[in-house]
Amino acid sequence: MVADHGPKSNISFAGTFASSAFAACTAEIVSIPLDTAKVRLQLQKKAVDGMALPKYKGLLGTVGTIAREEGLLALWKGIVPGLHRQCLFGGLRVGLYEPVKTLYVGQDFVGDVPLTKKILAALTTGALAITVANPTDLVKVRLQSEGKLPPGVPRRYSGAMNAYSTIVRQEGFGALWTGIGPNVARNAIINAAELASYDQVKQSILKLPGFTDNVVTHLFAGLGAGFFAVCIGSPVDVVKSRMMGDPSYKSTLDCFIRTLKNDGPLAFYKGFLPNFGRLGTWNVVMFLTLEQAKKFFKKE
């Protein structure tokens, strides 16, 4: 994600993949408590007459409830498959972005790449990357969705590797791609919102007097990327989390209709603030780390 003056890149695919995977893993470690809170809020069903009020309320309330009831480490549930996911998904979606963008505009293109081409390139790399990484996403959501269990009730999975093998054994190999439809939609859309908006915001900022390609510019561009991503991607994110956390849904459409019918349209923006907190934090940390990490791989 260098300033956009043409498709040529001064960093190899291997270098971009390695720096992207490292940056994505760093962002994951920092932001996963907010992601765990987001998943719990998204999976929480609406209170009905005679039933208890919702257990989780708001970003800080959900984080506090999880930490109090299950211990501080519970906020990092799913970190192992989360890191598996970021190595694959983070590395591929960012690593392929420049080559795919070059493919769409042509090798000899000169000037600022049009926003439409950036969006198209990011949609493509997001869809390809999550198709490979879907099993890691599934296991991460399954581990995050488990709350405090009554005494004597065993956990579904003892850890990430156990979850992969248990899902294959009990549900079949294809079950690792549960929720692939909304997940491809979500990650293609969010990837486009993040990468294209980061690229565009950074390009616009660098044209303003007094701004250079430094940490302040990366910070503003990262916040812009997080904001656009959560506004555009929240509905598909909720459907993805519900499908992965609850195997009773028959399809993406079934999950969408049942959520709309039972919980109303606002359910698609459940966990909006923790989602924005998470994606904003994630994008700032990821892009700041990425810009620094890429310096080690740049060709002289």
From TrEMBL:
Q: Describe where the Solcar repeats fall, as residue ranges on this chain.
A: 11-103, 113-204, 213-296
Q: What is its main location?
A: mitochondrion
For this record, the Gene Ontology CC terms, alphabetical, are: mitochondrial inner membrane
Q: What residue range is the signal peptide?
A: none
Q: What is this entry's stated membrane topology?
A: Multi-pass membrane protein
The protein's UniProt keywords, in alphabetical order, are: Membrane, Mitochondrion, Mitochondrion inner membrane, Repeat, Stress response, Transmembrane, Transmembrane helix, Transport
Q: Which molecular-function annotation in GO is an example for this chain?
A: amino acid transmembrane transporter activity
Q: State if Acetylation is listed as a keyword.
A: no
Q: Record's family?
A: Belongs to the mitochondrial carrier (TC 2.A.29) family.
Q: What is this protein called?
A: Uncoupling protein
Instruction: Write down the species.
Output: Cannabis sativa (Hemp)
